[in-house]
Amino acid sequence: MYLQRFLMTSVVAATGFFISACATGPDAPIASGSYQCGQLDVRIASAGDGDLLGVDYQGNRLLLKPKVSASGALYVAPGDDETSFWSKGERATFTVKGQAYPECLQAGALEMPFEATGNEPFWDARVEGEELLFKRPYESGEPEKVALETMVANRNGREFRGDLDGQELTLKVARQLCEDTMSGSQFPAQVRLELNGEVFQGCGGDPERLFRGAEWVVEDLAGVGIIDRSRMTIEFFDENRLAGQASCNRYGGQYELTGEGVSFDYMYVTKMACAPALMNQENRFLEFMAKVKRASIGRHGELVLTTTTGEKITAFQSTESKGNP
């Protein structure tokens, strides 16, 4: 019915972790390939006589034409500059009818800047280009700058190496779901930091990439299945916007994702009337949504929203085509 898929590519054992060939270079021309824009899978390929770009996503196909760009390769929809695909190297941006998806990355690539933290002892790192800003474990001083060299770049992640006051520093990033050991917050990458032979573990990446880019379809509402052929959905958009179907009516609002959890606010609902059973289900759904305090990804890739009183809303990514906007 709905796709139950893992969010991140599983990572092999640490000893064989980073062994594949490097990713596409930053000046490579646009060609066939795939990107992940948050939870949205996008495939691109030349189309027509080679002068058009085909973009496949959510069961849809766009045909875009090239447009002059100061940097990278830009393609736009004929007559609609608000639908575009721009790429440079392993990164891209994808916008449909003005709706911007999260930054699109080839397998293993990192969003920039890439931030990571670890606990007990506390440390944090920020990678931007070929530089690392690093706050050492056990110390509370200002972050130190470290020049980085990329040692390995493959579909599983990245490995960087640098020198900090004569001590060898290695930072390994695996594109695999990670949960903070103190807050329980989830992140899209596991991080391993080695400094002078000592090993520290942590999490990194933008947590919003776990939720954005997908239409989540509710399959369980506080332990009770939903009415046959009814539909409740949840979508996270740019600028912290939230929207979806509540059974009978459409709803929308704002979401805030922090280290302590998630909250929904400024909710609005359309006013269409439906059968009593659907209205009762909708009211329960909206009541629970107003009390959500935590969002997490389950073992089968499902979205789990937990309320302040312990009820859970469980949703899976839709496999149905939404049609071109």
TrEMBL record:
<feature type="domain" description="DUF306">
    <location>
        <begin position="212"/>
        <end position="316"/>
    </location>
</feature>
<keyword id="KW-0449">Lipoprotein</keyword>
<feature type="domain" description="C-type lysozyme inhibitor">
    <location>
        <begin position="35"/>
        <end position="100"/>
    </location>
</feature>
<dbReference type="InterPro" id="IPR036328">
    <property type="entry name" value="MliC_sf"/>
</dbReference>
<dbReference type="InterPro" id="IPR053147">
    <property type="entry name" value="Hsp_HslJ-like"/>
</dbReference>
<keyword id="KW-0732">Signal</keyword>
<dbReference type="InterPro" id="IPR038670">
    <property type="entry name" value="HslJ-like_sf"/>
</dbReference>
<dbReference type="InterPro" id="IPR018660">
    <property type="entry name" value="MliC"/>
</dbReference>
<keyword id="KW-0472">Membrane</keyword>
<feature type="signal peptide">
    <location>
        <begin position="1"/>
        <end position="23"/>
    </location>
</feature>
<keyword id="KW-0564">Palmitate</keyword>
<dbReference type="InterPro" id="IPR005184">
    <property type="entry name" value="DUF306_Meta_HslJ"/>
</dbReference>
<keyword id="KW-0346">Stress response</keyword>
<dbReference type="Pfam" id="PF09864">
    <property type="entry name" value="MliC"/>
</dbReference>
<dbReference type="Pfam" id="PF03724">
    <property type="entry name" value="META"/>
</dbReference>
<protein>
    <submittedName>
        <fullName>Heat shock protein HslJ</fullName>
    </submittedName>
</protein>
